[in-house]
Design a protein that fits this description.
Blueprint lengths: L7 H23 L3 E12 L14 E7 L5 E7 L3 H15 L2 E8 L3 H10 L1 E4 L8 E4 L3 E6 L15 E2 L20 H13 L14 H18 L9 H5 L8 H5 L5
Parallel strand pairs: 1-4, 4-7
Antiparallel strand pairs: 1-2, 2-3, 5-6, 7-8
Helix pairs in contact: 1-5, 2-3
Length: about 260
Amino acid sequence: MPSNGTSANTILAWERTFIDLHQVLFLYALVHEFFVLVIEGDEAYTKVQKNVPPEQSSGGTILLMDRASRFIWEIDCGKKERQLFHKAIKSLDTIARQTHDLTLFTDGERRYGNLLFEICQALVKNGQPGRPKKTFKSGVHVRLKNKGSQTHKKGPKRPKYQSPWREHPATARIMAETDIHANHAEAFFSALRRKCATFRRKTNMYAKSTQGLQRLLRVYWVVHNFLRVHFTTREVPAVALGILERRLSVQEIFQIQMA
């Protein structure tokens, strides 16, 4: 039993409530329309049940976070496989429908761009003969960092950042190379390792199950987005993004009606 006298079952019930709160608040965020969104994508790794190689662990965690407001759109865990990325990218496609200009920056994981292209693509019909070309939807930008070095290879050097697939002709905004990074997402995971023992590297307390780890991430999602003031923006991320007018209290969070 925790030192404050609250039973473990009560805390577990509160955590399960946050799962329902996540669904309600996420849908509430999606009813808003945004002019420009810049999303950073990154992954972290922790251990579940026992110590296994990262590619075999179900503790891989994927993050999609708005750069300006630090609002977390997605934070999900599981094996680092197609299913985990597909769920996050489907949410990204839904977000793209609510914005006029969506940009995704990642640390080099190519599955982001490939899956986004499968889900969020358009045909460019220019009146010329032949099959119309497939591109990203208008207003969608994707930039991936080319990992590895080509100093030992012949031929032209690869650009440091590139789009994995052709962009729509109407997507004309040019991004400076200095703006293409996922530094804020990396900083978030550094803070998560300090605050959450499950993600701490030196004294890692293994999560008992992927379900329990995901429940913990749902709690963190609600607290981070709607309760805690971010130290850089000086606002709750939901307020900085324009979803709310003011910060919610814990009492108000638990009073939200859930069908």
